[in-house]
Amino acid sequence: MSLNNDDYGDNPPPRAKGKIAKRRVARTLLMQAVYQWQLAGQNLNEIEAQFQVDNDFSGVDGEYFSEGLRAIAHQVSELDELFAGFLDRGVSDLDPVELAILRLAAWEFSQRIDVPYRVVLNEGIELAKTFGATDGHKYVNGVLDKLASQLRSAEINEFRKG
Length: 162
Prior knowledge:
One of its GO terms (molecular function) is RNA binding. 69% of the residues lie in helices and 0% in strands. The chain is mainly α and 162 residues long.
């Protein structure tokens, strides 16, 4: 799965306009790389090299992409355990796109506290809308909402206080 503007319809991903846009593009590519790793079991270095060749990385937070790909692959069991209790089926029964999104979000919620929980939640839902099954974003939203409550409760409480 490589980044293709046709996948986005009239809303192509942002490119190279600040840290937020670079992170958003990196997150999209990272989800696709995790998806590829899940399906092909390909070497991480090969996947990363392929993504750098196939995509313009001048508009990408490359450090985030690289860190995330390695962390998710090396901690996949621990990340799956974080959200497995919120599923209505086994992890192995999930749609591969939704699984890649949940793993990415679990990594961000648990290890990237510099990323606000609302960003992780919203970006996960948007990725599911763009790449997932018709109503996959609703499922992803439900799981991520529960995961956020478990892993980021203090941050959520502070946000609700205003």
